[in-house]
Amino acid sequence: MATPSLKPVAGDRHPSVEFSTRAAVDLPSLVMVVLEWVSVAWAYAGHASGTLSAAATVAIGLLGMNLAFTVWHEGIHQTLARGRRLNDVLGRLGAIPVFISYDRLRVHHLLHHRFTNEPHKDPDYWQIRGPFWALALRYFAGERESRALCRAASPSEGSSRADHVQILASLGVLAVLSWVSPWSALWAIVVPRLALCYVHAFYLNYLPHVGLPAGRHQGARMITVGRATSWLMLQHNYHALHHAFPAIPWHRYARAYPRVADELRARGITELTLRAAFPLALTLRKAPERS
Predict the structure, then answer these.
(1) Domain membership flag for residue 38
(2) What is the domain extent for residue 97?
(3) Which of 17, 91, 233, 261 is the most buried (most CB within 10 A)?
């Protein structure tokens, strides 16, 4: 697998709804970075001070960490800021609270775009290979395959100085917080992070991709939900739109969709209601394998 797969996937252009290069920073995404950190800090401090129960701490921590995907995801697609350096700094800030390598994420995600739903090429494919409830049973084998694909595409992935600093910062913060208040670190950080694996796998990968053929357009679907649910999902119910137009930032998906809906349908992109989508997670039917 050649290194061109590491270049941002341009997709199709739709300038009227894409990131404005006149702005130095995408303000809604910057607010999201702040909210992510404030939420996790609030959860930890609230539990450590005795003002938050364990359940409330987990809920607040999870809500904050839910923002992490969108932050680093926008960074990978270079829509956080006009300048590449600032864009990547903000992306890394989103990755620190969830203890993941920004460099590896970049390789991983761009491979997912290039080889959507292709077995043995898409590093996310293992997640839709079987029923959602059995995700944990195939986690380790799936992660091994995913890491192998990323290393084949970029042997140096995850080895940059910035990535080492980021990972050390994540582990250092967790170590200090665990030393100060281990139970608070458990409920505010560790448990929400573990729950986040299932939350993000469900609405960011499983529902948009399971049971669909390979391909940038046909391999992703739209999930039809109400406005409030769409914002709770940070508009990622417009997943197929993102695959077609990756330069559109997350907060403009809803505005962009009416302008491109007919074009997306003409390319074979389908829609599914959330009520109809949930049974996909419970079925024993495996997603079709394709070589």
Answers:
(1) yes
(2) 21-281
(3) 91
Confirm whether 4 is domain-assigned.
Answer: no
pLDDT tens-digit series, residues 164-181 = 888 898 999 999 999 999
Query: Amino acid letter at 141?
Result: A
What residues are paired with 221 via a beta bridge? none
- CB under 8 Å, gap of 24 or more: what pairs does 40-43 form? 40/64, 40/65, 40/97, 40/188, 40/189, 40/192, 43/187, 43/188, 43/189, 43/192
Residue appearing with tokens 């697609």: 77
Q: Total structural domains in the chain?
A: 1
For residue 217, tell me if it sits in a domain: yes
- Give the separation between CA 111 and CA 113, rounded to whole angstroms: 5
Please indicate, yes or no, if residue 289 is contained in any of the structural domains.
Answer: no
Give Cα 214 distance to the centre of its chain. Answer: 20
In terms of C-beta density within 10 A (0-12 exposed, 13-18 middle, 19 or more buried), how is residue 101 classed?
buried
Helix (H) or strand (E) holding 223: strand 222-224
Q: Is the dihedral of CA 260, 288, 8, 203 positive or negative?
A: positive
For 45-96, how does the pLDDT look when each residue is reduced to its tens digit (9 = 90+)? Answer: 999 999 999 999 999 999 999 999 999 999 999 999 989 999 999 999 999 9
The owner of tokens 């192998």 is 148
- In angstroms, how far is CA 71 from the centroid of its own chain? 8
